[in-house]
Write a structure and sequence with these properties.
Layout lengths: L1 E8 L3 H12 L6 E4 L31 H6 L2 E4 L4 E5 L4 E4 L4 E9 L3 E3 L11 H13 L3 E5 L3 H12 L3 E6 L6 H4 L1 H13 L3 E4 L11 E4 L3 E3 L2 H5 L8 E3 L4 E3 L2 E3 L4 E5 L4 E3 L4 H15 L12 E6 L3 E6 L7 E7 L4 E7 L5 E7 L2 H13 L6
Parallel strand pairs: 1-2, 1-6, 2-3, 6-15, 8-9, 8-11, 9-10, 13-16
Antiparallel strand pairs: 4-5, 5-6, 7-12, 14-15, 16-17, 18-19, 19-22, 20-21, 21-22
Amino acid sequence: MARFDNVIVGGGLAAGMVAQEYRGAGGDGSVLLIGREAHPPYHRPPLTKGFLRGEEPVEDTYVHSLDEWRELDVELRLSTEVAAIDPAAHTVELVDGERIEYGRLALATGSTPRTLGEAATIRVIEDSQRVGALLETGSGHLGVIGGGFVGVEAAASARMKGLDVTLVAPEPVLWSHLFGEQVGAYFQGHMERHGVRVLTGRKTLPDGDYDMILAGIGVTPNIELARNAGLPTNHGVLADDRLAAAPDIWVAGDIAEYQSVIHDRRIRIEHWDVALNHGSYIGKSWAGAEQGPYQVVPYFFSDIGDWTWMEYVGPGDRDDTVEVRGSMDDDDFVAYYSNADGKLTACLAVNRGDELNAARELIASGGGVPA
């Protein structure tokens, strides 16, 4: 049976960052990364943006090339799936029956898009290529079901390429479930002014001639491996404030439902920056370069075509009070979110990076809305 000091299950950004930062912090143990996709670890945000529009090659999405992973002395097992984990024996079993012993194990198994009939989804490179083939024609009608990040960003990309786009979302205002109706109306306005037909308060597309329908209705975290191994789970895999789910087992990215020392509760976040920071923290911890608990304020960002963009730290709550400062008309504003105790819970910024960074520090320290 092969043995590795460090085994990482998952082929996305979080997994790649564990390996990269372990080596970067001086970790010299053996490292095996097992991913079920054919690609080395890569960044997913381009799949609804530049890569989807054909503006960048697939290699630009990779965290490292295959040669660079070899230089880091990280062994990749791609197109390989793990069937089971045995925490007591410190082994993982592959679908072909091979068993591998580990000293430490990181699970970064990501999420699977929820499906809707024959509608397309975007999660992996091949999904983006499928939708991108339609965008490349520069014509046609794309129907989008769902008003989350994937649906909105893909809709904007399709409109930039000249397609007719109809988007439906169940919320009364686009992104109102995330940022409140006032801020949501700002983003919906940009979509509509650039020609996207946005229909809110509904879950189905109107009758029409669609060349493709894309579903962006959320994801389901891939926690089956962990659950079957007896690890504690809820919506994600339960972890402590050091992202540890069990002795010698850590979790990162979409599946990590961890105890946040900043929020004093468990949270689970599905976004690029959280995956990056989880992986970085675990890798450094394994190398002995990170001693304290994980305490990074979650950060989000989104580009809506080349029309506008936003940054956000939080997360806030739907019942929070929202205070907007600046000018939405000039794409230059900040929105502060606070709870009933006046504590700052979140901040959304459009071209207000300084305010966002200050808010990040206030959230971390438990402060209120800045004067």
